[in-house]
């Protein structure tokens, strides 16, 4: 790591993975650490000690560096349960809700709050981490109005309007795929899977109905009656789940924020459903978003 350039650190700490970024003052990436050490693996609430252990190679020289964190680290299952801010929310309102703490080695740390959206009375949706990416995307695009989808374990579809994160909706697409393929009759005793664009499209075609739990069982019957080969069931199931998600969107253009492989699948689905899309690197807009939050906080502190 080019140590003399590093000005601050960013942490994306989720339930299953940990990522740290060392950045220059203007947000340029100098170094990165990734570990399969999520919040759920931290025993007895030893978050500070775990963070210090992971970052030891950096902290030897830069214990004073401020650390900015986002994601599930600020949840009830994380380090500090930082209260949600309510949508619609602006960048400055999000930054204002940031929680400040001092780390045992004397460095200041900040945890960005998540966002809560009231769908209807007594029914809410929430996000932690994606709000940073959305405001980063806003800065990258220099646009105040757009719609974005963030594929993942819990996919998010969000609308930005007039510089505000106006509303969003969560789809449990990734988690459902994992549960159904690993722990249900649909994935039981399957052979090694082989990619099949045809099976994926078949899933897209058959998705979207109000009887979706019934449609899911087709992953079983198509296999029984040779409509989908056993080696292609995962792709058929993927098409069903992604198609069901995207058919609820009704947007004609989506920015797809996330990793290359998963977003590519969504691009293919959008093309089939006659919707346009553009892939955006999730890490890039996450770091842009964190920089924008840091700028707002620094301005407020200097007033």
UniProtKB/TrEMBL annotation:
One of its GO terms (biological process) is D-galactonate catabolic process. It holds the Pfam family DGOK. It comes from the Bacteria. One of its GO terms (molecular function) is 2-dehydro-3-deoxygalactonokinase activity. CDD domains: ASKHA_NBD_KDGal-kinase (cd24012). This is 2-keto-3-deoxy-galactonokinase. It comes from Vibrio panuliri. The lineage of its organism: Bacteria, Pseudomonadati, Pseudomonadota, Gammaproteobacteria, Vibrionales.
């Amino acid at each position: 790591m080019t140590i003399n350039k590093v000005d601050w650190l960013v942490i994306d700490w989720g339930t299953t993975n940990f990522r740290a970024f060392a950045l220059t003052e203007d947000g340029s990436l100098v170094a990165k650490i990734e570990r399969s050490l999520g919040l759920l693996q931290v025993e007895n609430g030893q978050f500070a000690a775990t963070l210090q252990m992971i970052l030891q190679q950096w902290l030897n020289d830069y214990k004073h560096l401020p650390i900015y964190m986002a994601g599930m680290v600020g949840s009830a299952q994380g380090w500090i349960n930082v209260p949600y801010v309510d949508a619609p929310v602006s960048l400055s309102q999000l930054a204002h809700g940031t929680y400040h703490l001092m780390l045992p080695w004397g460095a200041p740390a900040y945890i960005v709050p998540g966002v809560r959206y009231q769908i209807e009375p007594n029914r809410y949706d929430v996000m932690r981490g994606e709000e940073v990416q959305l405001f980063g995307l806003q800065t990258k695009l220099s646009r105040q109005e757009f719609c974005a989808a963030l594929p993942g374990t819990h996919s998010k579809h969000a609308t930005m309007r007039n510089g505000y994160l106006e509303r969003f909706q969560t789809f449990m697409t990734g988690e459902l795929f994992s549960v159904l393929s690993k722990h249900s009759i649909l994935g039981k005793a399957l052979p090694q899977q082989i990619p099949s664009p045809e099976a994926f499209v078949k899933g897209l075609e058959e998705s979207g109905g109000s009887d979706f739990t019934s449609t899911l069982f087709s992953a079983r019957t198509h296999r029984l009656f040779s409509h989908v080969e056993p080696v292609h069931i995962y792709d058929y199931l993927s098409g069903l789940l992604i198609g069901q998600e995207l058919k609820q969107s009704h947007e004609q253009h989506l920015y797809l924020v996330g990793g290359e492989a998963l977003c590519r699948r969504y691009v293919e689905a959008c093309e089939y459903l006659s919707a346009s899309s553009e892939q955006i690197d999730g890490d890039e807009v996450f770091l842009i978003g964190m920089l924008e939050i840091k700028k707002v906080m620094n301005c407020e502190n200097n007033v």
